[in-house]
Amino acid sequence: MKSLIRYLVNGLPLVAIALVIAFVIYPKFVAPSAKLDGEERSNKIVNAPERRELPQSEEYQVINIHDGDTLTVQGNWGKQKIRLCGIDAPELDQPLGYESRDFARSLVASAGNNIILMPIEKDRYGRTVAEVFVALKDGQEKSLQEELLKSGLANSY
């Protein structure tokens, strides 16, 4: 019985600290009151922002593949440069640069140079960063990024 009492007494400061954190400090970080546009906000749950729509995919004709992660396409909106999203392939002057480019070219050529793009954003050079899919003749689609990663000719970015 003495050891139980000693255990409870020794643990009391920890319990007190936990209660102070729970009731005094924690609420200030969770949902502090703030004035927005003249309105008083309380510590209520705020609704999540509207859900972002997925980008629309379009089919394009590949004109040129510069290296493993950059290509030029022709579509309804004219020519544009595309940067593959999520990967980094070697440049032509780096080891495996030509192999990476040639692998991407062969995969795109097997689909008749047609690809499906899902644009994500624009990069600092004005290129469209996109997910790129190759529509094969047997009806399957393959992710160009995934195939480059599986082959070891690109790194995830």
TrEMBL record:
SUPFAM superfamilies: Staphylococcal nuclease. Keywords: Endonuclease, Hydrolase, Membrane, Nuclease, Transmembrane, Transmembrane helix. The keyword rRNA-binding does not apply. The chain crosses the membrane at residues 7-26. Residues 56-157 form the TNase-like domain. Pfam families: SNase (PF00565). The keyword Amino-acid biosynthesis does not apply. InterPro entries: SNase_OB-fold_sf, Staphylococal_nuclease_OB-fold, Thermonucl_AS, TonB_box_CS. This is Thermonuclease family protein. It comes from Gloeocapsopsis crepidinum LEGE 06123.
